[in-house]
Hints:
The protein has helices at 3-28, 34-39, 44-69. It is mostly helical.
Amino acid sequence: MPKLFKFMLKNIAIGIAVGWSFVAALLYFDVGGFGTLVLNSSMKWVALSMLALFFAVTFGSAAVASAVLLGHDFTDDESGDDSYLPERVFEPDLQPSLIPIKNRR
């Protein structure tokens, strides 16, 4: 399986787990009466499935986007290191600089 595909699947799974945990916390702690409203509804399975689906899509895509924006190097290396944390593609060299401003007096 290609490294990019494994990378995306791993981050999607992490995002889905975080999203479903967030839904479970919302329902368990009954934030604003939301848990009571959903669990006492006559169509609670529809509400729960919609919450699960949309939180999975939102948090899964956010996890992939944040992992991609961290900058992962996908060059094929033979080291066999499948660590989760990506290597930085670049290291910024930040230097302070003075900006002249005019005195208002």
